[in-house]
Amino acid sequence: MTLLPRPAPFDAIRRSSALRLAVRLTTVFTIAILLAGAVSFAVLTEELRSRLADQAHQLAKGLAQSLRADGPAALSRRIGGYTAAVDDHYSLYLFVGPDGKVRAGNMTPPAPFTGPKILHGGRDMTLLGAEPDERDHSFAAYGIKVGKSWIVAGRDTVWIDDSREVLVQSIAWGLGTALLLSIAVAALLARRSEERIGRINAVLDAVAGGDFSRRARDAGDDDIGRIASSLNVTLDTLELSIEGLRQVSNDVAHDLRTPLTRLRNRLEPLLHRDDLPSGAAREIGQAVSETETLVRAFNAVLRIAQLEGGSARPEMRVLDLAALATDVFEMLEPVAEEAGHQLLIEAAGPARILGDRDMLAQALTNLIENAFRYCPAPARIVLRVDQHDGNETLLSVCDDGPGIAAADRARAQQRFVRLDRAREGEGSGLGLSLVAAVMRLHGARLELADNPAAGGARPGLCVRARFPAPGSARPGA
């Protein structure tokens, strides 16, 4: 029985709450970084443009002061020296004399302007002597009127473009590295959480299978650790309660079995008295029968307690399950004929398992007698032993009776459980419980299913026990 679903490893990580939280936080972090990058981009662009405009202004003011102090000829020589410099390819100069003619510069005159302005190469003016890939550059320019003369100075905005490109690349690389790191950390945390949850799930599976001694071993102090601690406290309480119930039932069975046996022994001699009225003999016979039923029930309770408590030490040996099934078949076939049933056996050949012969014979007898009891005559009951997938030995008892509903199959293996259709008949509700205890002791999986070969209106029932190959599994696991 599995209480929690077991998805594939990748699906488990993908569906992890820790991973989903990390993805949400990473998404928020990414959006915040992109917004911060956009603001930084805008602020940097504005700051660089302001600095270029200030540089152009200062350069234009210097040229204007040179014109006033030294005259047009000196200014023309100064600008000519600037434009001839090899390392000054990103500056803009223009000197237009009072007559409207260009006296010096490295550009064609744009439309006259004063103050700051962005000039685009190839549209507002043409760069002189520029390389083909530089002719479309933009410049932060500043124009000044000095009398009737006109001076323009500017700086190439390619510096702004380069700086913005560096900023974008830095943000992209930083964000990419952060995302990869956060995804890796999130996947690691998710995997660790899934492993811890998987260990808790394994404990729940073991408890659902009847092993109430299992506990969640988790030393964490986070939410999963607190859940594991609470689970352990709950399992401690559950184990104490179940152990108390078992002890009470075992004590009751042990204390009542002896007086019931004495009562039966005292009643049986009365049945053979000649002076006993016929009505009294019939009543005494029914009392003896009921007493025997109670004694068998108490014996079954004690036997189950011994099996589950470990006091019943099985004699595990390699045996032929097919031969054991044949012996049980030969013993019960006359009983089946007397009850009007047909008991068949199908065994393909030797089937070696590790087990206790007496315990398995008792469990198999219980299964067949259950079929006798609950199947209306005439019923067809098939005992089958065969190998399954090469590693398992399959023992099954199938009938064409009313079967057991899927919702009741797990409950039918518990002590004293008698389904609605069986309450009016014989039995104590311990047969399948005893079989389940024997199978757990042998490491076998007990399965209840409809019988596909039943046909008719009744679904039938197949009780299957899957035994591991000798040496492949520890008995009692």
Describe this structure in words.
The chain is α+β, with helices and mostly antiparallel strands. The protein has three domains: 1-193, Beta-Lactamase, CATH 3.30.450; 223-309, Helix Hairpins, CATH 1.10.287; 317-468, Heat Shock Protein 90. The protein has nine helices and twelve strands. It has helices at 9-14, 17-70, 72-84, 158-208, 223-267, 278-309, 321-338, 357-374, 431-441; strands spanning 91-96, 102-105, 115-120, 138-146, 149-156, 317-320, 342-347, 352-355, 380-388, 392-399, 445-449, 461-468. A five-stranded antiparallel β-sheet has the order 2-1-5-4-3. The model is unreliable at 1-10 and 421-425 (pLDDT under 50).
SSE blueprint:
Layout lengths: L8 H6 L2 H54 L1 H13 L6 E6 L5 E4 L9 E6 L17 E9 L2 E8 L1 H51 L14 H45 L10 H32 L7 E4 H18 L3 E6 L4 E4 L1 H18 L5 E9 L3 E8 L31 H11 L3 E5 L11 E8 L9
Parallel strand pairs: 7-9
Antiparallel strand pairs: 1-2, 1-5, 3-4, 4-5, 6-8, 9-10, 10-12, 11-12
Helix pairs in contact: 2-3, 2-4, 5-6, 6-9, 7-8, 8-9
